[in-house]
């Protein structure tokens, strides 16, 4: 019912490029934990509360799903208007959500509304994997704006000089992309096999579990990499 919180979408990051852009992203001043909590509250918790609140009021499944899933779409539009620019990931998400919403409006099928969320998470996963062909993979581009300047400078040096560091960035990007692909497949299966009213909550639970697993894997992998390179691990 809700799109996955956009892991890379932080406060005004530089647009992630798919080829040859070595421009360094600006620092953001907000912690990853803060951004994750904000995304979870606005893109997961709030739509869930609206859906189940509407169902308690007697609203039918299809309409409750359409209205609740419109909240993340409204937030994306608001960000684009507020920032007076549209980042590539935001434009990508908007196009998928708008087209999927149009299809669901034409069919009136609540299961199709549920399944449409898999389109977004699948394409996000594919997009993450596609950055392996870019000058910098997803994990590198998404993390750089969140780092202190000294750490960011160290990352730039490591990217230029340490092949193992470049390989680690690509391994982590594959892990994140694969997690979103797993989420997409599971959402389709749930949408067409489970009771409609249970799917939104189960989908949110699945996303939460996957994010916890992939974040912990990333932390563990980063610590091992830091040990091999003789660097202090980032907290």
TrEMBL record:
Biased segments, Basic and acidic residues type? 20-29
What segment(s) does the record annotate as region Disordered? Answer: 1-30
TM ranges are: 60-78, 90-107, 119-139, 171-193, 199-218
Entry keyword annotation includes Transmembrane: yes
Q: Which organism is it from?
A: Streptomyces mutomycini
Q: Which keywords does this Swiss-Prot/TrEMBL entry list?
A: Membrane, Transmembrane, Transmembrane helix
Tell me the protein's name. Answer: VC0807 family protein
């Amino acid at each position: 019912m809700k799109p996955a919180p956009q892991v890379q979408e932080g406060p005004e990051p530089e647009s992630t490029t798919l080829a040859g852009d070595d421009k360094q992203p600006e620092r953001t001043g907000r912690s990853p934990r803060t951004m994750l909590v904000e995304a979870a509250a606005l893109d997961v918790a709030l739509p869930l509360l609206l859906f189940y609140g509407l169902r308690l009021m007697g609203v039918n499944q299809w309409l409750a799903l359409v209205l609740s899933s419109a909240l993340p779409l409204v937030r994306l539009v608001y960000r684009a208007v507020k920032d007076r620019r549209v980042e590539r990931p935001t434009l990508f998400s908007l196009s998928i959500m708008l087209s999927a919403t149009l299809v669901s409006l034409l069919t009136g099928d609540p299961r199709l509304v549920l399944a449409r969320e898999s389109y977004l998470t699948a394409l996000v996963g594919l997009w993450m994997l596609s950055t392996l062909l870019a000058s910098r993979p997803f994990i590198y581009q998404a993390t750089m704006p969140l780092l202190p300047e000294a750490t960011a400078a160290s990352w730039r040096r490591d990217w230029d000089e340490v092949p193992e560091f470049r390989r680690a960035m690509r391994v982590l990007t594959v892990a994140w992309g694969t997690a979103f692909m797993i989420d997409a497949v599971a959402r389709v299966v749930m949408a067409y096999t489970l009771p409609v009213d249970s799917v939104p909550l189960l989908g949110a639970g699945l996303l939460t579990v996957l994010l916890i697993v992939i974040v912990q894997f990333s932390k563990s992998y980063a610590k091992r990499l830091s040990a091999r390179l003789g660097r202090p691990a980032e907290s």
